[in-house]
């Protein structure tokens, strides 16, 4: 625990994008709010309005998506799930946002505010324009008299890796939310939490798609390519929800593959630019896999859309995953073949032309330790209050139960 008199020194090298050191130092005295506090809902709606009125925001589809997501009408659709619960925020929530998804910090903040917490959010040291746009909108609305009370509930900071700062912010939090992969989780766990605090972690995961070839051939290839591009190349395939493996089913796999990748390549050539180092890394990952696994084949000579054909799915094959358009492919009509890779690290299964209930049954009946989401192809990046198996708002808040007695019997 860092002595209180040293707090100001610890925060000297912290850059405050929203809020101040004073709000952090007084956060222990800031009361928690109830779930879906009307003032918070109204505040988020106002921030949405400010963002959507800015012309420059339209250049960033992820900011636009978040702004639509936090509209009052959108948020209130979620509220009925919690109406029979009496809950308060846990207190101070310390968020560590990832460096590969710029708007993730705002998504985490949204869940925390609606859960009733005071939020201290560390954003990536990368200078994302999306972060600037959202923080500017937050600051603008917090200056309005109606929402000024929320200043002490929102602190957004940026600082280089600093154990002392991590130690201090961890020592005052009731909830720590760590995004960004295994290394980030390991680094933050060097900083102890108070005895009653809890932690939510979002470590490295991988995801896959299942596509029925017969059903795919009935679709518009350009439309499907656009949906798949959003799932993958839009975040350089760095998001945990981005598919790494495409599982093909049905009777016309070869025909479907040819059309699918021709349409995807045309879109990638138009929109995507791959770095030289990534091209090398992709080839290196392929060579490492081929050295340890039999019958691994690169399909075609293209490197921007790299296809790696697999004859079998071993439980470690996705340890050799790579970003920037690097896809494993496997063909089967027996989804039971997938069980070895549906372990803890598997997060999302997207699908096209496959009954999602069949996929759900595969997960449940085999008791697999992974797979938290089953979504249509093109929707792996959708903003949700459920992520990695967490009900975010529920997990970020605590129950306040009442047990009443009548004639010495609980009622």
Task: Describe what this molecule looks like in 3D.
The protein has helices spanning 7-10, 21-25, 38-52, 61-69, 72-76, 104-115, 129-142, 163-171, 182-188, 213-216, 221-231, 253-271, 276-292, 356-365, 392-395; strands at 15-18, 87-89, 92-96, 118-122, 154-158, 175-179, 198-202, 206-212, 243-249, 296-299, 306-310, 326-331, 346-352, 373-376, 386-387, 390-391, 397-399, 405-406, 409-410. With 411 residues, it is an alpha/beta fold. The longest helix is centred in the middle third of the chain and has 19 residues, at 253-271. Helix 3 (38-52) crosses helix 7. It contains 15 helices and 19 strands. It is globular and about 60 Å long. It starts with 6 loop residues before the first helix and ends with a strand. The strands form five sheets. Strands 10-11-12-9-8-13-14 form a seven-stranded mixed β-sheet. A six-stranded mixed β-sheet has the order 1-5-4-3-6-7, with helices on both faces. The chain is 35% helix and 20% strand. Strand 18 (405-406) and strand 19 (409-410) form a beta hairpin.
Number of helices: 15
- Quick one: biggest sheet? 7 strands, mixed
Mean pLDDT over the full residue set: 93
Strand percentage, roughly?
15-25%
- Report the structural category: alpha/beta
Tell me the number of strands.
Answer: 19
Distance between the termini: 43 Å
Spatial strand arrangement across the major sheet: 10-11-12-9-8-13-14
How does the overall form come out from the CA principal axes?
Answer: globular
Low-pLDDT stretches: 1-5
Radius of gyration: 23 Å
Helix content: 25-40%
């Amino acid at each position: 625990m860092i002595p209180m008199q040293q707090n100001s020194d610890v925060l000297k090298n912290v850059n405050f994008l929203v809020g101040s050191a004073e709000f952090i130092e007084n956060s222990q005295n800031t009361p928690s709010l109830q779930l879906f506090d009307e003032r918070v809902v109204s505040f988020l709606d106002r921030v949405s309005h400010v963002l959507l009125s800015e012309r420059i925001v339209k250049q960033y589809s992820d900011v636009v998506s978040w702004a639509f997501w936090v509209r009052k009408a959108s948020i209130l659709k979620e509220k009925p799930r919690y109406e029979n619960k009496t809950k308060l925020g846990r207190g101070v929530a310390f968020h560590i946002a990832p460096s590969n998804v710029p708007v993730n910090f705002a998504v985490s903040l949204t869940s925390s505010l609606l859960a009733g917490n005071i939020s201290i959010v560390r954003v990536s040291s990368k200078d994302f324009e999306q972060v600037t746009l959202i923080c500017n909108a937050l600051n603008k609305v917090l200056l309005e008299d109606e929402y000024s009370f929320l200043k002490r509930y929102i602190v957004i900071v940026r600082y280089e890796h600093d154990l002392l700062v991590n130690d201090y912010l961890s020592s005052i939090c009731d909830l720590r939310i760590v995004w960004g992969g295994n290394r980030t989780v390991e680094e933050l766990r060097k900083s102890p939490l108070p005895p009653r605090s809890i932690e939510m972690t979002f470590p490295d995961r991988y995801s896959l798609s299942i596509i029925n070839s017969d059903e795919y051939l009935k679709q518009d290839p350009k439309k499907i390519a656009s949906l798949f591009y959003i799932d993958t190349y839009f975040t350089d395939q760095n998001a945990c929800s981005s598919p790494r493996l495409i599982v093909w089913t049905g009777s016309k796999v070869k025909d479907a593959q040819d059309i699918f990748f021709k349409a995807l390549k045309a879109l990638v050539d138009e929109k995507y630019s791959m770095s030289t180092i990534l091209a090398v890394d992709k080839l290196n990952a392929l060579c490492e896999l081929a050295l340890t696994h039999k019958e691994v084949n690169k399909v075609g000579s293209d490197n921007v859309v790299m296809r790696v054909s697999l004859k079998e799915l071993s439980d470690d094959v996705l340890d050799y995953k790579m970003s920037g358009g690097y896809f494993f492919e496997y063909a089967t009509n027996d989804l039971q073949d997938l069980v070895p890779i549906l372990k803890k690290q598997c997060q999302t299964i997207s699908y096209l032309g496959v009954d999602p209930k069949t996929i759900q049954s595969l997960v449940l009946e085999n008791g697999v330790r992974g797979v938290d989401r089953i979504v249509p192809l093109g929707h792996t990046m959708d903003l949700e209050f459920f992520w990695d198996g967490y009900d975010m708002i529920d997990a970020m808040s605590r129950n306040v139960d009442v047990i009443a007695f009548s004639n010495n019997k609980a009622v």
